[in-house]
Amino acid sequence: MVGLSGRSKGCRTCRRRKIKCDERQPLCARCERGGWTCYGFDREVSFVSENLRAKRRSQKQAAIRAKNCESECETTQLSTPQSGFSIPQGSDEEGNCMISVQSSASISGLVVWQPQVMVMPADCTVQLFPELSLSAFKNDIRISFTLAKLFSGDRDVVEWLSLGYNSGDDYINCGALKALSSAFYGRMNHDIQSENEARTHYVGVLKRLSRAIGNNESMSLDVLVSSMTLSCYEMIASSSFGPSLLHAGGVGRLIEVRGPKRHRGRFELSILESMRVSIILKGMFDRKRVFLERQEWKTIPWTFHAVQNPMTKMVQDIMCDMPGLLEDFDNVFAPEISPKEHKMRLGQLKTNLEHHLCLLFDWRAAWESEYPNSCYERSPQVTDGPFSTVLYFYDFEVCNGLMLYHSLVLLITEIGIALVGADFNHARFAQGTNFVCTNPLLQPPGVSLYDGAIEVCRSVDYHISPPHESAGAYCVVFPLKKAHDELPPGSLEHKWVEDLMHVIARQSGFMSLQSVL
């Protein structure tokens, strides 16, 4: 690799794996041949706080000046007899403070230094050594900190968040980013003033958003990105998950109005991919099907751009159907339908659940073939739980896809048991799957629900460890919620998940996560 010594020009994936990169752009061939996700050649942004260093430098300079001043005073005192040296103080006719220094005549030819009389206003306050003030740069500091820490590693999210940083104050998303960054910076650094300023920005952005939507600007990217940013803000500022889901529902309606063809551009597609799971979670919370389950929303946006993570997209496509399954379950037991209608709806839903289980187990077999030897065991680095070893993966997106798979199997089986009772056995639908094991540390398709939940728990340490942290916490919250529902109440693992969720909320800055369980 040509360049400066010690500065590799390889892609981010090869640099992380510490191997030589062929440097083919935009995606290197080595990652493509090895089945790895190439994260490109952009350098990751790192936030370096200079506050402490600047403060120490200012204090050091102040100490040096004070020492020099003290030395000068000692020299003057040694040169002047004590009886002939006085510092009278008084005030002039206008009430100003007067400080003068008088000295005796020269002794033995030694000329004594005599400073001038200094006149200052009475209300004047003098600070000899002021500390360096960074208040003029506080927004830049907070935004840089947020872009570096929040959703670190997720290039798509950082891209649309940065839109507010590159826009002027006339754009709504600029104010939305200030609200988000002030809230996140204040939460992570215990800065109450920053959190208060975040609330002020938030109120102003809400007013501007309501006017923009009323003026038929709802299809603009400015309005869409601002709404997405406020959804992230609520995850940090609110102690409940509801406000964030409420904003996610609003973002979903804006995306639906724009239509799938408006999201075929690279930037617009990244917005859709970033919000898919949030929109689905909102639909599951309301138990109402979402527009994302329509086939046009699973195909048209990717017309001009190849899918970066095909396996993750496939399992998210299956996840898009989950709100509709929950709505169909409620319709089966609607009080106004006849017994005949009830029986027909029950049979249709049971068939649909079995179909989705088959899709999931086929996906799991394809995932196993696509990503052999994708994980390894190690001792816990972040969490302190009941597991002596935990699972770490070589790729973050690969891990996320597997965790979504486990959560969907748990959810569908839960619906099936509630529908027809304990006779609903998910394992029998995995028997016809063409599964070839290449990851001996992972559970195969059709294992018990408890084993699937434990596998989710063993991946949490990887999710919330650097560099994932906040992004990993957001991705693992839904799988961890479903694992918690499956674990026996009162068990060691069940209690550990409850305590862990509070730790994740505090460390990631997403305070709303503590209310998920």
From TrEMBL:
Key words of the record: Nucleus
Tree of life domain: Eukaryota
SUPFAM superfamilies: Zn2/Cys6 DNA-binding domain
CDD domains noted in UniProt: GAL4 (cd00067)
Record InterPro entries: Osmoadaptation_assoc, Zn2-C6_fun-type_DNA-bd_sf, Zn2Cys6_DnaBD
UniProt keyword Membrane, yes or no: no
Zn(2)-C6 fungal-type domain boundaries: 10-38
An MF annotation (GO) of this entry: DNA-binding transcription factor activity, RNA polymerase II-specific
Keyword presence, Nucleus: yes
PANTHER family to which the protein is assigned, alphabetical: FINGER DOMAIN PROTEIN, PUTATIVE (AFU_ORTHOLOGUE AFUA_1G01560)-RELATED, ZN(2)-C6 FUNGAL-TYPE DOMAIN-CONTAINING PROTEIN-RELATED
Name of the protein in its database record: Zn(2)-C6 fungal-type domain-containing protein
